[in-house]
Amino acid sequence: MDLQEGRSSVVPFVHSIFFKLFVYFLLLSIVPLTLSGLLTYKNVSELLVTKLDQDASSVLEQNSRTLAFYFNDLKRMGEISFLSSAVSDFLKNKDYDAYLLSFLPLDEAFSSIHLIRPENVGITLVSDRGFVYSYGYSLNRDQSSFYQFDWMPKLSQLSSEPTITRLHDRPYSTSQEEEPVFSYVQRLYSKDLKAKGVLIIDFKRSILDSLFESSYFSKNAHGGIESGMLITSKSGDVLYPQDTDLFPTQDMQSLDQVKRIADRSGNLYRSVALLNEETDWTLIGYFRESNLYGPIYRIRNFTYWILLPSIVFCLLASFYLSHRMSDPIRHLQSLMKKVGQGDFHHLFTLRRKDEIGQLGQGFNQMVGKIKELIQLVHEEQSQKRRAELTALQSQIKPHFLYNTLESINSLARKHKEPQISKMIVLLGKLMRLSISTFDEMIPIWKELEYVRCYLELHQFRSRRPIEYEMEMDEEIQSLYTVKWVLQPVVENAILHGLDPIPNQDVSGRIEIKGWLEHDAVYLQIKDNGVGLEKSKLEEMRHNLEHNAQELTQFKQKVGLYNVQSRIRLHFGAAYGLSVHSVPEQGMRVTIKLPRRTSDDQTTDRG
């Protein structure tokens, strides 16, 4: 046995406090240095990327607002056209001669509308009845079937919102028919909403150059593109700028979905996309990553040169500190082994004022406390044995009382006194339920059994007949409550409610029922007694809420106030008694308890 203990006392080096401290110090020094370098590199990188993303997003938002402003001008032109009487008459017109006569008022109307955006290259008005009017260009009537063009949106799409078409040529114009344009298309209605048509406003791609002239390509000193902006349609076609071939064609379709893309020379770019909801166009800003990460690479190299000397210093410092701290701990370890073997005469004598010195003082105090606790355990065991003897002796008295009641019961039956016999049986059962258990928490069914015996006894002593009814589910009866919460309330109902009824022929009635509500159990006792006046009822409610414990302790109120005090001491202020009474109609007492399925649940303290 001694040999095994000697072997177990030898701690392997890898498990020793010196080795662990050495490793911990290395980890606490080298790991933070390494992580600081990596985190610095990562945070600076993310900070620069986030800053560029924010700057690019800010520029894109500004450009998106500019584009939205232009789109709103086109919508305003459409709204003014909708309010024009000349436009309304044109849409309602069915006669060709009247159609020719409508040109002059339409010219006057659109001359003012065109001033909102004079850079637009033409305005076209098409009625659903086949008439076409053009402003700002000469119409080629051989190519004026606008509803047949593939770029023309379906009329069902125009019923809710106007739209901007893709780039298309202008075969309906006698000049510049091959120059591509965008078209703003809006559904129009006559003022009486009986005639319909379409408004088409054409504008060149060069208008976007004027809108975004400050956001075009920027180049470095060597002519390489560093940053720029693109606009793509919903289908992925590049709308702006016109002459860009920086990125491969197949990558342009998904440029608004990626954060990184390579140009035709292999240079990596970072992109930021923003959707303009008015036009369904996507604005994409991009910038070259090589210009972004140059400062980051310099920070990384600088970190390496600081990290290597720091690691060497940490190795030396970790070795010294580990040795310095492990020696007194090993000494304390040997003392603890001796104490573990039952030798309490060895104390830690190392004179240090740091935490290890305090640990030694704590060890010395612990040894002293252990001695005191051992002495207390001996005393407690002695007191426990004496208490057990006293409890055994106290059981003799109830046993003697039960035997005496049983003898009286036998004598009553012998002399044919059934009422006395029944009263003795009920009294014995009542006393057995009262003193047979010392548990503070009991099932609700035991409370009901106790109240039932109590009411049966009162059938004999009361001057008037007492009827009672108990309505409670088995689930509620199986729950637990504080001992003796129903009987004092029932006794209060009999003594202060039923007994004072003047008419002796009136039967007293007590109803006891229970129900569950969320996590609470409600028990209610209702009588048909004399009730309470409003002033006394308010006084009782006030005392139950604020003075129950004081009245129970100092004024020996053992009825409702006693029950209220015990419930709140066990479960808290959220539970207890509430009373309701009407004079000459009786009184209702409701008890709120927590839902407890056993007698050892943690007592609530509200």
TrEMBL record:
<feature type="transmembrane region" description="Helical">
    <location>
        <begin position="302"/>
        <end position="321"/>
    </location>
</feature>
<keyword id="KW-0597">Phosphoprotein</keyword>
<dbReference type="InterPro" id="IPR003660">
    <property type="entry name" value="HAMP_dom"/>
</dbReference>
<dbReference type="Pfam" id="PF00672">
    <property type="entry name" value="HAMP"/>
</dbReference>
<dbReference type="InterPro" id="IPR036890">
    <property type="entry name" value="HATPase_C_sf"/>
</dbReference>
<dbReference type="InterPro" id="IPR003594">
    <property type="entry name" value="HATPase_dom"/>
</dbReference>
<dbReference type="Pfam" id="PF06580">
    <property type="entry name" value="His_kinase"/>
</dbReference>
<keyword id="KW-0812">Transmembrane</keyword>
<feature type="domain" description="HAMP">
    <location>
        <begin position="323"/>
        <end position="375"/>
    </location>
</feature>
<feature type="transmembrane region" description="Helical">
    <location>
        <begin position="21"/>
        <end position="41"/>
    </location>
</feature>
<keyword id="KW-1133">Transmembrane helix</keyword>
<dbReference type="Pfam" id="PF02518">
    <property type="entry name" value="HATPase_c"/>
</dbReference>
<keyword id="KW-1003">Cell membrane</keyword>
<keyword id="KW-0808">Transferase</keyword>
<dbReference type="InterPro" id="IPR050640">
    <property type="entry name" value="Bact_2-comp_sensor_kinase"/>
</dbReference>
<dbReference type="InterPro" id="IPR010559">
    <property type="entry name" value="Sig_transdc_His_kin_internal"/>
</dbReference>
<keyword id="KW-0472">Membrane</keyword>
<dbReference type="GO" id="GO:0005886">
    <property type="term" value="C:plasma membrane"/>
</dbReference>
<dbReference type="GO" id="GO:0000155">
    <property type="term" value="F:phosphorelay sensor kinase activity"/>
</dbReference>
<protein>
    <submittedName>
        <fullName>Sensor histidine kinase</fullName>
    </submittedName>
</protein>
<keyword id="KW-0418">Kinase</keyword>
